[in-house]
TrEMBL record:
Keywords: Repeat, Transit peptide. GO terms for biological process: RNA modification. It comes from the Eukaryota. InterPro entries: DYW_dom, E2_motif, E_motif, PPR_At4g14850-like_plant, PPR_rpt, TPR-like_helical_dom_sf. PPR repeats lie at residues 359-393. It comes from Leersia perrieri. Residues 97-122 are annotated as: Disordered. This is DYW domain-containing protein. Pfam families: DYW_deaminase (PF14432), E_motif (PF20431), Eplus_motif (PF20430), PPR (PF01535), PPR_2 (PF13041). GO terms for molecular function: RNA binding; zinc ion binding. NCBIfam families: PPR (TIGR00756). Residues 574-666 form the DYW domain.
């Protein structure tokens, strides 16, 4: 469920709607002006369908909320109708007529129950304070924006509706002397909830002009904070680029905005782009001699973990230690995630063990790191330790524990935790937990149990669950079950390129080559492009990226020569390419050549040329590694006596001495 905010404007009057998609709920913040009578109200309405519209009639501006049946729920034209107060109304005016109106009986044309409650009394009290502030303002001849801002900043109102109502009273009236300036909006941003703050920020940029943030650092920082908090990276970047000599809070706000966008993205290319942007900003920041703090460090090491930039991450950690930055549990959690994401789970454990006062999130980070590296027993020991010290367990904790069991083949232990989720931990399984259990059973070859769980799930299965079953059916030769899962996957996500590749590979494993080719042809006919495979390798702190058949690298001639050498040496050890990963209508020999130029092969070849002999090779791949490249990496680790740590889309592979930590199931 996410929120959709919109701003309805008419001159200086505005209404801000906040709809919660998926829950049939609408919040509407309305600033109404009837000549000199101004108030704000938050409406929260539960309806299946909401339509918002606005219109003007004379000096009155209002917003209507109309239900599916056309019933008018809010009628702003007749301002004298009676509100059913719920403690979130504030009225203000020169004579406070609305407070006087509360004491009158409802008009006969409106039969609405008036809540004579503490909420009403509180509203009248706030109204009297509004009148007092209004009286202070009107005693100034002429009233000034400075005084109005001072009243706004020092007002006793704590409710967002109160702050907005006072803003409307001071600045949306008819006085030509009172116009908002750069000092008006920051207090409002702090008082308002995110959707309202976002709408006000957008309104302020239009009202004050796009260059206002560049001339006032406080306003610029406030706008950055609002746009960053709401994930509006484009607006955030525009504001930042207009600030002259941005200070540390401005840099942190922009980097944190990219970090939020990275965490929310499901695209590998998008998350890498955001991580790149953070590191680029960090470099610019240091070049301008702006000293980072703990907030900066969290954003930077998070980007390093996403990219697998171990060298950058170690440098940032070392910088923090030398500058005596506080490594609190938030920073420690970020460092644990970074080291685990860069393939150094041993360093992640060192940071974790050295930290104090660890909370659930930090334990979850360490558990996840152990899980994706295949350290199942260590993860279970850490979970027991977590429970022993009384750290609360949540759904993410149990998901990490079950994933650790799945990757390590600890099926019985994983199933036990799944069965006691609700009884012992009072946690209801979500789709991610079901998916993990299906994956765990599928890895172990218990496909009948996996299918039974899918049929009996309390939640409708998603595409990830069907993908796990299809992949396992290909490995274990279950054609009938696999085809049923293929039909379900096509029904759920017919346009996903990865699904078409998975289906084609499934049929290839079953020696159903015509069906495999048909799946690829369907993909082409629908205009679906396969996600391009890419691999990153870190050499002395510099990230080098390779695509399939990439010849753009300055050392491409040497790289391709090394690829040929590797293939020759692997063939001497009996390696033959598994060409089922290549489904083009070409000869087997040509398929083998195509496999040799996969992005991870090029990255390994370059690392053998450019890295220190004997040093581990660390590769980050955006897609799942194919069968042939997996076998090739195993042999390279044996023939060249090099450890290869490869992170693909689902887990880490540690290749040592011709073996892989995944046990050849991934």
């Amino acid at each position: 469920m996410h929120q959709v905010s919109s701003l309805l404007e008419s001159d200086d009057r505005l209404a801000i709607s906040n709809s919660h998609t998926g829950s049939s709920k609408v919040d509407l913040w309305v600033l109404l002006d009837y000549t000199r009578m101004v108030w704000v109200r938050k409406y929260q309405i539960e309806l299946p369908v909401i339509q918002i519209r606005r219109f003007e009639e004379g000096d009155c501006w209002c917003s209507h909320i109309v239900s599916q049946k056309g019933d008018v729920l809010v009628d702003g034209l007749d301002w004298q109708f009676h509100y059913d107060l719920k403690g979130n109304d504030v009225a203000a005016g020169p004579s406070c007529r609305w407070a006087h109106h509360q004491q009158q009986p409802p008009p006969p044309t409106r039969s609405r129950r008036f809540a004579r409650s503490s909420a009403s009394a509180a509203t009248r009290s706030r109204c009297r304070r509004a009148c007092s502030l209004s009286s202070t303002l009107s005693s100034s001849h002429p009233p000034t924006t400075f005084l109005a801002n001072s009243l706004l900043l020092s007002s006793p109102f704590s409710l967002p509706s109160a702050a907005l109502s006072l803003y409307a009273l001071l600045f949306l009236g008819s006085s030509p002397f009172l116009r908002p300036n750069a000092f008006t909006y920051p207090p409002l941003f702090r008082a308002a909830p995110p959707p309202v703050a976002l709408a006000l920020a957008t309104h302020s940029v239009k009202f004050l002009g796009a260059d206002a943030a560049s001339s006032d650092r406080v306003l610029g920082a406030a706008l950055l904070g609002v746009f960053a908090r709401c994930g509006r990276i484009v607006s955030c970047r525009k504001v930042f680029d207009r600030i002259v000599n941005p200070d540390l809070p401005a840099w942190n706000a922009l980097m944190s905005s990219y970090a939020r966008l990275r965490d929310a993205s499901s695209s590998a290319a998008s998350t890498a782009a955001e991580a790149d942007a953070i590191l680029e900003l960090f470099g610019r920041m240091l070049a301008l001699s702006v000293r980072p703090n703990e907030i900066t460090l969290v954003a930077v090491v998070g980007a390093c973990g996403e990219l697998g930039a171990l060298g950058h991450g170690v440098w940032a950690h070392t910088y923090a230690v030398r500058r005596r930055l506080a490594v609190n549990r938030i920073v420690a959690t970020a460092l644990v995630e970074m080291y685990a994401g860069c393939g150094r789970v041993d360093l992640a454990e060192q940071v974790f063990d050295a930290a104090s006062d660890m909370d659930t999130r930090c334990y979850n980070a360490m558990l996840h790191g152990l899980a994706v590296h295949g350290h199942g027993r260590d993860a279970l020991d850490l979970f027991d330790r977590m429970r022993g010290v009384g750290v609360p367990v949540d759904g993410v904790t149990l998901l990490s524990v079950m994933c650790a069991c799945a990757h390590a083949g600890l099926v019985d232990e994983g199933m036990e935790y799944f069965h006691i989720m609700e009884t012992e931990f009072r946690i209801e399984p979500r789709i991610e937990h079901y998916g993990c259990v299906v994956d765990m059973l599928s890895r172990a070859g218990r496909l009948d149990d996996a299918e039974k769980l899918v049929r009996e799930m309390a939640i409708a299965p998603n595409a990830a669950i069907y993908r796990s079953l299809i992949r396992a059916c290909g490995i274990h030769g279950k054609l009938d079950l696999g085809e049923r899962m293929v039909a379900e996957l096509r029904r759920l996500e017919p346009d996903d390129s990865g699904n078409h590749v998975l289906i084609a590979n499934f049929y290839a494993r079953m020696d159903r080559w015509e069906d495999a080719k048909k799946a690829r042809k369907e993909m082409k006919s629908m205009g679906i492009d396969k996600n391009a495979g890419s691999s990153l390798v870190d050499i002395d702190g510099v990230l080098h990226e390779f695509l399939v058949g990439d010849k753009t690298h300055p050392a491409s001639k040497e790289i391709y020569a090394m690829v040929e050498e590797i293939e020759t040496r692997l063939n001497e050890f009996g390696h033959r390419s598994s060409t089922m990963s290549v489904l083009f209508d070409v000869e087997e020999e040509d398929k083998a050549v195509t496999l040799s130029y996969h992005s991870e092969r090029l990255a390994i070849a370059f690392a053998l040329i450019a890295s220190t002999p004997g040093a581990p090779i660390r590769i980050i791949k955006n897609l799942r590694v194919c069968t042939d490249c997996h076998e090739s990496a195993k042999l390279v680790s044996q023939v060249y006596d090099r450890e290869i740590v490869m992170r693909d889309r689902t887990r880490f592979h540690h290749f040592r001495g011709g073996e892989c930590s995944c046990g050849d199931f991934w």
